Amino acid sequence: MSWLNSTPLMMLERYLDVVTMRQTLVSTNIANVDTPGYHTRDVDFRGELQRAMNGDDTSLSSPFVLPVRGLIARPDGNNVSVDRESMLLAEVQLQFKAATAIIRSEFSGLSTAIREGQ
Q: pTM here?
């Protein structure tokens, strides 16, 4: 891993990429709640985050999407749980807000350093 990829801002950028990828999957699951035979999909969030942090750029272009096991399927074969997906969506939103707040703080510190250096 190069020095550039190990800066806190670059790591936060990769974290946001993984969070955004998961948010897209959760939204897709919710959108398919009435699709017969649709099976809930998710990513190994920690695994994808680890791959992204290790500098594996292919992780975001070809994520390891998994079917979610252990969910109860309805008679039409669909196993999307709106409660589960809503909880995951709220979790992803909190993760995104926290990361963007940290990035905002980092840029504010940089801006202060630039202003005081003049």
A: 0.79
What is the structure's pLDDT at 2? 46
Number of domains in the chain: 1
Please give the Cα distance from 24 to 1 (Å, whole number).
28
Contact 71, 81 (CB under 8 A): yes
Residue 25's contacts (CB-CB under 8 Å, 6 or more residues apart) are: 41, 42, 43, 65
Q: How far apart are CA 87 and CA 84, in angstroms?
A: 5
Give the strand pairing for 41-43 and 65-67: antiparallel
The helix-helix angle for 8-31 and 45-53 (nearest 10°) equals 150
Which residues span the domain enclosing 42? 4-116
Identify the H or E element spanning 84: helix 82-116
